[in-house]
Amino acid sequence: MKAGTQSLPSRFTGLFLAPADARIYACIRIAFALVSLLNLMQIWPDREIFFTDVGMVDQEVVRKFTVGSYLSVFDLCHDVSSVSTYLLFSGAAMVLLLLGVWPRLAAGIVFVWYVSYAMRAPLILVGWDEVLRSTAFLVLISPMSARWSLRSRRARRRAGPEGPVPCYGLTLMRVQLAVIYLHTVLARLDNEYWMGGDFMSFFLLSHNARWPGLWVLNYGFALKVATYLTLLTELAIPFLLMVRRWRWIGFATGIFLHVGISLTSYNLELFFLAMMVLYLSFLQPEDMDWLERRLPRPRAR
Fold it and tell me: Which of 244-256 are b and which e, b meaning 16 or more Cβ less than 10 Å from the residue's Cβ?
């Protein structure tokens, strides 16, 4: 009993300080930077409407109704020229993060970007904005490896072979993913449409559906089953991913869920990609070995 009690602190510490494969962090860094660039490219055409003084939201109104401090770089950007410059600056940081060049600084700039536009234009926020902002913070505080980056060869010559890194960043990302799904399910427990099984029918009749139409009325029972199955799937995914031998079932279930959401919903592909970044935290060293064996190797001089 005593030995088991003494092992609890060490097990808890192991969740955050146990060695992890640096390549997993590198994979997450690259995927997050790519999704961030796609998100910025989607925002770019509407930057004047979203972020300038002549846009749809007055900055003073936003400041007035902000809970807590108003912290946004857009407090200094009021016209389309300055807003465009800031978006390009943030995009350059995303490219640097993708390449692994000054990754900590680049991750900090990207995190500030997410906080800034969430403060400035809260009306445009959707699900993946929240996911990417929290992921930006987790990437910022996670170990920054030289693996899979432009600086990796120079860093290896200077510091020698790179060993394992602490796993705290991966643990926090896994917890974040579990919280997203569990909170989603809990928030729906008092919703009459979800609990009554009618949500999918109403959703597919709305303007948010990709193919809205009266055809939905012919599949009432099937859509009721789909509504309850969605809740069960979101509840099961975190538990499947946490068990190592079931994690690929969790991966497949999550991909199937989000592909279904993307196919039936209008313009939610970025939500799928943002969630997949967090899924990468459940990768294991053997997965990275498999991936590296299939990546093209640079020719020796």
Answer: eeebeebbebbee
